[in-house]
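Bit of a strange request maybe. I'm writing a small parser for structure token strings and I need a real example to test against, not something I typed by hand. Could someone generate the tokens for this chain?
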Amino acid sequence: MSRHYDHLADVEAFAAAVERGSLTAAATALATTPSAISRAIARLETRLGVQLLRRTTRRLGLTEAGRAYLEQTRAAFALIDEAERSLQGQGGALSGSVRLSVPTTYGHYRLPARLQAFAQQHPQVRIELSIANRNVDLIAEGYDLAIRLGELPDSGLVARKLEDAPVCLVASPDYLRHAGLPRTIDELAQHRCLSFVMPSSGRVFPWILREDGRDRDWTPGGALRVSDDPLGMVSLAEQGAGICQSYDFIVGERVRAGRLVEVLPHTRGRSRSFSLIYAPHRQLSAAARALIAALSAG
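Reply from user aminoacidic:
Good idea to test on real output. This should exercise your parser:
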């Protein structure tokens, strides 16, 4: 009996090239080489007798035939995926993999304990974890879930709030001995205030404070600015570089140990939210759904 579907690897290569935007990106996703992806697409075009892609030095473009073929093959792969997902977790342990993207603050301080508990309950599920301060494109980059900070734009993604994380101002005892203790928000202007530059906009992240029962945003204007990783501000503050604002779950232990001191505690009372996001139209595996439930349970 001849094999009718031995070309499915070539179809997957074609779909990956279109979805990722280049042969190189598709090769990375499928753990192969750009030349192998190119040969796979050429074989598929020969088999079908039509041109699927227009290749230029800068980008790939679909032909009309390629667009129609891609739409139908996506539907076919979706049916196969759903058939597999419907069986996962039935009559045995959960298995499979989940790709998750998280920011450094959450990845280092909140996620480890939750992932450890999940791993003990579901040892056959593989978690591919990216810890970085950038907003990944879930669909284009192949992530199942992501944890993000703050108010989320209306992007069509499903968002589940994980927590509202309180923030506070801190500095080292050595810094406060030399610079003095500020008594009001306005006095912060006379101090070395460590600021974080947001990667998405290049603007300084404002401190969120509360004064006399009213919310007040204050932008630190210090000479030392941190980019990419806000955890760097905490390390600098602990070494006496100045005052920073961070989450209680990050600096609380340092404050209790005396390595940091809370500054202007009467201005606390505000928080920033962390949310778990995923695409609503994407069929999630049983493993991904289980991880959503575990992370949402707190």
